[in-house]
Description:
This protein is mainly α. The protein has seven helices and no strands. The structure holds iron/sulfur cluster. Iron/sulfur cluster binds near residues 11, 16, 17 and 18.
Amino acid sequence: MPTIPSLEADCSKCAALCCVVFAFDKSDEFAIDKEAGETCVNLETVGSNCGKCKIHTTLKQDGFGGCAAYDCHGAGQRLMQEIYKGKSWIDDPALLPDIMDSFRGMLIVHELILLLQTASRLPLTALETEKYNKYMDRLCPENGWTERSLLKLETSEFRLEVGEFLVSLRHHANEIQRLMRKN
Ligand code: SF4
């Protein structure tokens, strides 16, 4: 059985990736326009609170409800700890382009693991279980992910294949509805 990574975000072990990587249009959920790779104006970048959100406790009231709702499912801290070994774009801005590319890949990994884990609660057939195991093995490689393998994942056939597999589980519709009601 592959070792499944934690799917719970631990921002204390990350480097505020969601505060820099994504682009946002001003809306009800995000009070300003922001380009991808541009540091959020609310992120402290100096002093003892460096890397922390200045308005973390009042995000919703301040018009940043989208940040409060965001969940990377553990991809952020895993990337910074496993691939970048605790180095940060805040200390070394030259790392940012590579970190942004790798983060997109790690997000795909963690989202697919989460979806497959949810699917595994369905009464899968033997063939579906075989596919589930095969995909989990690929998503949780023994030697971990690298910048290179994460980059390749974004445009890979594998990603599409897992997506098609998940769609093919629609015939479990009644059970899916039951699980959704439970969640
Ligand atoms: S990317 Fe994930 S772990 Fe990192 S700060 Fe954002 S939510 Fe937290």
